[in-house]
């Protein structure tokens, strides 16, 4: 058996990989959350909505568009690469990524082939984000043993990284059949398909990403301050492994409107519905708790463009991240409000964040 990803050779990043302007984008899991009137969004409508989000984000000047993977009745997207392929031919410049691909229950050969095709269709704009998955429904669905949760991810991340580096590829692991000088086609237009790692706050996951020199996302749903230590751990782990730490990204729930009061009044009923249906362990979200979550130091990004700018800059001081992804369209929020929020993020928030960071 070859070494798993936790002990594999770190990736030597070319100089300047982490350089460049601060990036802002949007993402979604394609939730089918019931709206405040109790109606369930049909999956075909949700997919059409999501593609429109991609087009508007691209036209407005955002940097990244992402979709995540679930295998549940309350989500419309089971294959990020399939939807990203559709987005590839409807957009021109925005980067297209998964947020996330559940690598533990996927075949890395097929994943690399699929995302290479997205890369070719988009003329070099594809990325993927590998994760274990916040839900575990894919394991029984694809006949996998949940007790090998960590083993699957380590083993398959190791193979995915090997496929990026070699073709043909020879590999042996513990969770699938070995490969002996196997060709994996097609190859992406980019020299190497970008792979990010999504972590939910587990130190071991942060250490792994740092040691491997892979860019990493923090999904911030709790107190943002607790992730500051993880950002330090990520960079320290990279330094210990002798690699240049790559980019950090931050993801958060999001809605922006012209004024703070408008944003909060509009978003609250939809977000409370989302929390009740998708995060029932949190209980009923009353207005006071919503306002606290959306405060200047809370995890929820809701407010005016100026408030969103200030919160991004505050988190940047803590994390030093270079990408912010906003999760949009939550709780059955109407399409018009979602599209306006995307436009404001691109035209009011992004320029001000870049200007402020350039002046520091």
UniProtKB/TrEMBL annotation:
Residues 25-318 form the Luciferase-like domain. InterPro entries: Bact_Lucif_Oxidored, Luciferase-like_dom, Luciferase-like_sf. Keywords: Monooxygenase, Oxidoreductase. SUPFAM superfamilies: Bacterial luciferase-like. This is LLM class flavin-dependent oxidoreductase. It comes from Brevibacterium daeguense.
